[in-house]
# Entry
Amino acid sequence: MECDILDAWIDSEQASHFFQDTDMRLAEIPSGQDTLEFTVRSLKALPQLGVNFRLTPGATIQPESGSLQDFSQGDVTYTVTSEDGQWQRRYTVRCRQPETPDPEVSSQLYNFENYALNSGGNYYEWFEPLGDGSSQSIWATGNAGFIIAKPNSAADDYPTVPEANGYEGACVRLTTRNTGSWGKRFHKPIAAGNLFLGSFDSKYALTNTLWTTNMGIPYMAEPVRVTGYYRYQPGEVFTDKDGIEHNDRTDTPSIYAAFYRNHDAEGNAVVLHGDDLKTNPLIVRKAEAEQLPTTSEWRQFEMVFTGDEPIDPTLLANRGYSLALVFSSSLNGDTFEGSVGSTLYIDKVELYHKADPTK
# Structure
């Protein structure tokens, strides 16, 4: 009955059209993902490409694996049919040319005005409009994990949801939620509201939750600082992963960023997870909002990137660095400590970078 794409790759003879060899491979594709994207240097100069696929056993795909397609003209839809012929899944495969930072503009503003329910209509997702009229899903949340704990929840009862009354227009509301009987059974009694640059992989939700968060996206400019607006109210009762109350502790939010080299010395792709977001040796810049007092009114926050390692302009131009930017309603939510009801509102986040990477 299975009809999934497990891996997708482009043969090495086309390497000149990509920034990194790893840009040509999509490995261990999450089961819920139906859009596959390859990043290329230039769509205008892109020849026809043959994308190869590894499918679930017995499944077939049309167009055929490896067949040449013209991705410079737009997306290509592939249909995977199960071995028994009774089930099908459609995948959208695209090639995208990255938008490079405008040398005349020193910041990128995120207003969080663009969101929609996921394909199943269960929870909200956010996306960013691009200059060519399309959009890109660079923001992720833990909502895809919360559905495992409470599958019947209304979309507005998930940890991360849109809020109409932001600092200006819409904003994001992050709320630490109770995970019910499922959470008690697996010692994961809360789910902090979170929003981060990257992707979420639900296959680790039961085994290694710190690896569900793939934090960071390739970023072709050196970040300098981040500003934005927030509101925060902690929940009333602080509990640990076993649900034990700690009356001497008060929940706090977290806003953090890391800029890191996204390949190791052997050329293997690297992405940060919850277990090494602040400790991975490939991190070259860090920023953290250390003062986030409770407030019912909108307040501005600012955090500055620090780090002494020189930024390699060639590596930067070839998408060799990634940026992780993380918001959470509970500082220790990744270890399931916090207060149910803690709520963080985020709006108008502005990321400042060096417009000229040689300076």
In short: The first strand starts at residue 5 and ends at 10. The helical segments are 143-149, 180-186, 313-317. The chain has three helices and 29 strands. The mean pLDDT is 93.
